[in-house]
Amino acid sequence: MTINPKLKDPLTDRLFQAILLLESEEECYQFFEDIATISELKALAQRLEVAAMLKRGHTYDEIVSRTGASTATISRVKRCLYYGADGYKTILARLDGETQE
Known about the structure:
The chain is mainly α.
């Protein structure tokens, strides 16, 4: 998998290096509370849950009801889940304890 050249730059590299240095859920909370707004974090968490629900075969109505996500957000996540860089697939498999293909 190649990295999107529009995303890759030294500042983003440094951010991802910092994230990889976090050692616990508590450290994640501390770092992300400082670096992002609560709304930004909630939006990211919502997208991850939308992806998980799509992977499990839930309908848009079920996802809207459970997460409060808009249908536009669900559509975007679905597009990334099936046609994106496989980031959702990788992390969802790891969260589910599956081995990556």
